[in-house]
Design brief:
The chain has 204 residues and is an alpha/beta fold. It has one domain: Rossmann fold (3-Layer(aba) Sandwich). Helices cover 47% and strands 19% of the residues. It has eight helices and nine strands. The longest helix has 16 residues.
Amino acid sequence: MYVLSSPSGAGKTTITRELLNNNADVTISISATTRQRRGGETHGKDYYFVSTEDFRNMVENEEMLEHAKVFDNYYGTPRGPVEDALQSGKDVIFDIDWQGTQKLAEIARDDLVTVFILPPSRGELEKRLRSRAENTLESEEQIQGRMSKASDEMSHYLEYDYVIVNNNIDYAIKKAQLILEGERLKRRRMVGLSDFVRGLKDGL
């Protein structure tokens, strides 16, 4: 399970999209949320859009790997699709915040790789948020709310395995890809390695 976290506007969605495009054996965990669907978003692709009541029922039935309340809405990771993907041999990318990352670490730390994406400066982060707001129609109040929340989010970078400062999006994508490849090469993640080595030894 490969987690990417960042304050809004730091670039994790772009990095996630490129990792998915460049790796056929990687899939993304689609979160469930109670927030309203934005223009262009698709149920089951961008998010599972559910009612607050349905979300609470999923939590009570232990159908969520993690969940949190963010900006007055609930977000969570449905358990079933993630477990199915992992069992089929795929790596799963999570686009979640530090709260969700902490909860995943509590239940599956050995299977977890965590990366925090930082913006190059506070000014650049605000610039990116304002640019995005032109498409999402977010208000000035919402932009300032995201900037305020960013300070708290960035204070959690020490809890992550890796940190990428997104000065250049292409370079940041390459770093994220290198982390993915390096973690796959760890001995404990190489499925079938013991049988392979035994075969080599038997052949000598």
